[in-house]
Design a protein that fits this description.
The structure holds two protein chains of two kinds. Chain A is mainly α. Chain A is built from eleven helices and no strands. In chain A, helix 10 runs antiparallel to helix 11. In chain B, a hairpin with a 6-residue loop joins strand 3 and strand 4. About 15% of the residues of chain B have low confidence. The chains are: A mainly alpha, B alpha+beta. Chain A: One of its GO terms (molecular function) is sigma factor antagonist activity.
Amino acid sequence: METNKTPTSMPEHLSALLDDEAGSFEQKRVLDELSTNDALRDKLSTYALIGETMRSSDVGKPMLNLDSSFLAGIHAKIEEEEQYHDVQIAQVAAGQSARSQSWIKPLGSFALVASVAAVAVVGLQNFQQSRMAEPSALVASNNAISKTMIAQKDQLTENEMSSAKQVSAADLASNNVNTNSEPMAATQEYAQADTQTRSLLKRYVDSHMQYASTAAFVPSVRVIAYTDNQ
Amino acid sequence: MIRFYLENKKKIKMKKLTYLLLIPMLLPVTAFADKAAVDLLNKMNQALHELNYTGTLAYLQGNSLSTLHIDHSVVNGVEGERVVRLNEAGSELSRELKGFSLSSIPRIRPEMEKVYSFDMGRENRVANIPCRIITARPKDRQRYLQKYCIDTVSGMLLDYMLVGKSHKPVEQFMFTTIEIRVPESMAATNSSICAAGDCALQSLSANTGTTTAILDHSITTVDPIQNSITKKPSKIISKQVLRQVSHTSLEDGWVIETVPLGYEIKQAPHLKEQNNNGDTRHYVLSDGLSTVSVFVTPYLGNTPMEAVEINSGALNVVTQQKGKHRITAVGEVPEITLKNLVKNLRKK
């Protein structure tokens, strides 16, 4: 292999130096050459940069941020960090406990495959039986299912009509655990405020501004802007 | 060259060790900057309530720019404020904060550093007054980034900006002219604070020791509005009676199941509804810099109420029906914070 060859050219010596594999004589020779050879110095920077890039965990991004300060780089990294919350931490913890019982995995996979095969066999048998059964029985069965579905739908509609927003709140309750996602933005529709609602909200904004912890004049400016905007 | 690409574990370990050694060296520098930033913010909070100041303020809200005249004074311990919009509707608002005391001034508390990092920035100049930039950078998406430029001599806030998650300003307040008058009582207070060792900012100020009644660098404001203001009658707002509630359990069985990190219920003022629908419960949550109000109002309407959301600069309003109540959240925070609060508010 190429790695076993003794370096013969100056770039190879340079490469060996960077890999900490050059002998003391080679080191001295390369360093002497570097002090006089501009092209070799450029090569050194290129090799160093390639090395940093390859060691970088982020594909396509150099590990060293050469254009900004070290602290700025840290801040940029923090900004890029994904936010972790209780639910996600719980999920991670669950994942870790699952990993710790790694012997269960193969057994679980086997059980899953066996279950799928069993369901497929039973399903195929039922399908063949249903094809052989009387068409009227099939219609009756379908009617029964349809009636049940209509009854359920009627019940749901009645509940929804009586307290539409309570249903909405219950839906939200089921999504309660995920605090950082935006399920409401996706599911909740927001309407334009009517005059009465605007008047009420204006009153709430006034009341809120009395207790706003921001700088003294800021709440007053916001109240004026809000009033004029509405 | 293949040899070059092979990872050398020993070298990487050495590099990691070098970074680990570098971090403790940087910590004292950043800790000092944080301390100075927090001190300056606290000084600003105090100055904004204690100083007498008059000036013209440019207010940028999205793409809309307006100018306002601000007049703030403390007379016999009563803080008064008058804000007049100089363009468009010319609206005016007067506030009188009775019972003003030093203890009521918000202070940056150590626990706030769980949700914000405070950084001291470069020196800038606003309204021809040198000021120091301070950034309160949120550690999650439940609040805005806040950027201040504070006159280190008087503590006056000259420029204030809130930045949203897309790194664009959602709101900016900037004085174009300002006259600052320091009451004699405050000059004495500042001296005592410095004597107590709270003077990390002294080194940052180019004009340390300036505690005269009227600051040298203040610019006298031209007051062109005396004849044109008061298009609308001004309004006096005063503080109302407060109730006591626990951290998350409110009244009448209402509970906030998940409060966003850093927020706490600070106050529960009483608000009487005008439409006789019953009492409105008002709860004020704050993380120290951002405030959210939650209003719980009985809803007796026959038709289901439609959910409404309103945005005005950094201010967001979300209202929706929950059972037989209207829940409204108002705050200078991202709308997702309000939506999560409303979502997590339930009646047990």
